[in-house]
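Backbone shapes recur. Consider a single case.
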Amino acid sequence: MKNSNSSDEFLVQFWGVRGSIPTPGNQTARYGGNTSCIEMQIGGKRLIFDGGSGLHVLGRELLKTMPVEAYMFFTHYHWDHIQGVPMFIPAFVEGNHFQIFGAVPDQNGSLEQHFMERVLHPNSPVPIKGMQANIEFSHISCGDTFKIDDIIIETGPLNHPNGAMGYRVTWQGHSVFYCTDTEHYPDHIDENVLQLANNADLLIYDSMYTDEEYHNPKSPKVGWGHSTWEEGVKVCEAAGVKRFVKFHHEPAHSDDFLDKLEEKILAASSNAVLAKEGMILKVV
């Protein structure tokens, strides 16, 4: 697979930062209402993580730089992580090339069969036979470590209903851990999360709730498969992470709410940042 760009940098761009369901509207315009999708440009290669509705926005941008060549990674297959796949326009253009990585739920069949029969066929408004790009499938399992040239990718299980996979990406001594969707444990930090977060430059962490929301006696979120920003800060402190990124924002959290929340987060972690659509972070 050819390089997608000539950059010698490690960049992370956010195309979808919302959890559970897209939330368009004037109350979410600044942080964004599209669901999970991030892009990493590393040493001339393009890596895409998750295919929420943000993938459709990324796809429109990629049409400007065809032919498109990218590696795509999926944490799991809940709707908010695959909504953009059927409308990912570059996949319908001949000459583009994608290699898709992910686990197969319950180890049932091949990854290609899973995508075509479960992800695309029942959810796509357009005929999947129209996907003219060259698409390859690579089945991986939690715990696998592999390389794409000089990029090292480590994986691990996350605590989420039906399962999910976290990805740590390392290049030239710098690492980013994409850690969504996951729920913390009440009495200890998840050892799988702690291991993949160790000394990372960036932790992109499922911080859907505040501690107050998570433990709200009238409407608790315990067991829903998501964590809090307070727990994300704890992971960063325990693992020696350089920078915490709050990700997977709750659909009901407006821009104004997140602005106020940012003050609390920065007081707890001065180098933290709240993910916004279009935001680019340089990993150094």
